[in-house]
Design brief:
The chain is α/β, with parallel strands linked by helices. It has 2 domains: 2-107 and 236-247, 2-Layer Sandwich (Nucleotidyltransferase, domain 5), CATH 3.30.420.40; 121-229, ATPase, nucleotide binding domain (Nucleotidyltransferase, domain 5). The chain has helices at residues 40-53, 88-96, 105-116, 161-165, 167-172, 177-195, 209-215, 234-242, and strands at residues 2-8, 12-19, 24-25, 30-33, 60-64, 68-69, 72-73, 100-104, 125-131, 135-141, 144-146, 155-156, 159-160, 199-203, 224-227. Strands 1, 2, 3, 4, 5 and 8 form a 6-stranded mixed beta sheet that branches. The protein has a 5-stranded mixed beta sheet with strand order 11-10-9-14-15. The structure holds beta-D-glucopyranose.
Length: 258
């Protein structure tokens, strides 16, 4: 069963068909730059481009970097303010002619990790942190997602954590990896103090092995600390996985048992 997964980020929109049973991509990832300003209508057009690239006709799972409830975006910290109260699932379904399920990007990455990645089979309290333009979080208790956490906005030394310790901030203020890791360590200390996780998974761009080796030696946690093996594909895979039920026929459409 294949679903098109699309991950909408601050700099790029990436998509690929995903086998939602194995969590593997069925074709090479297609990426386009996120239009600026990233308004709902412009993003909807970009989503349409991804769909056209794969000549896709079928269910779509899509992430956005916002809290989502019932398909509606409720926050817009790193995206255009006009997203707030936008029924994103309806907007993208209208733009593509396909059934669309929308979820928060970090929650999607977390679901992929627990299903196919570093979190597979892990019980207890697991927190996945996606570190990129912002800091996104997905919290799991014995494998069950607590949806919509926004722990990237915890306060660290009186500052919003994602403004203090995201990868974008590292680049913007030209922090060395060691300097950035010092800030990120302060963030991890706060997360550990408040949530006592058993496992912390680092996702997003910083999970690439070439980047990991630059900072991981500076970080120390009580919890086990690992990087996500699905790297930057976790959002695509998780979004597709969560939309998997759109690919199954509704119960009344199923053939009667003989
Ligand atoms: C948003 C989250 C998102 C994270 C990562 C934060 O600014 O509030 O919803 O998951 O960025 O993109």
């Amino acid at each position: 069963m294949t679903v098109l997964g699309i991950d909408i980020g601050g700099s790029g929109i990436k998509g690929a068909p995903v086998d939602v049973v194995t969590g593997t991509l069925g074709a090479e990832r297609f990426r386009i730059d996120t239009p600026k300003p990233a308004t709902p209508n412009r993003i909807a057009k970009a989503v349409r481009q991804v769909v056209d690239h794969f000549a896709w006709k079928g269910p779509i799972g899509c992430t956005i970097p916002a809290r989502v409830h019932g398909g509606v975006a409720l926050t817009a910290t790193n995206i255009h303010s006009t997203w707030i109260d936008t029924p994103v699932d309806v907007l993208f379904s209208d733009a593509t002619g396909c059934p669309v399920r929308v979820m928060n990007d970090a929650d999607a990455a977390g679901v992929a990790s627990m299903q196919f990645g570093a979190g597979q089979g892990r019980k207890g309290v697991v927190i996945l942190l996606t570190v990129g333009t912002g800091i996104g979080t997905a919290l799991f208790i014995d494998g069950t997602l607590v949806p919509g956490t926004e722990l990237g906005h915890l306060e660290v030394l009186g500052r919003n954590a994602e403004l203090y310790a995201s990868d974008r901030t590292r680049k913007q203020v030209s922090l060395s990896w060691k300097q950035w890791a010092r800030r990120f360590q302060q963030y991890l200390d706060t997360v550990e103090f408040l949530f006592a996780p058993d496992l912390i998974i680092l996702g997003g761009g910083i999970s690439r092995p070439s980047k990991k080796e630059k900072y991981i030696k500076f970080l120390h946690t009580k919890a086990e600390l690992v990087t996500e093996i699905l790297e930057n594909e976790a959002g695509i895979v998780g979004a597709a996985f969560m939309a998997g039920d759109l690919a199954r026929p509704a119960p009344q459409e199923r053939a009667p048992r003989s």
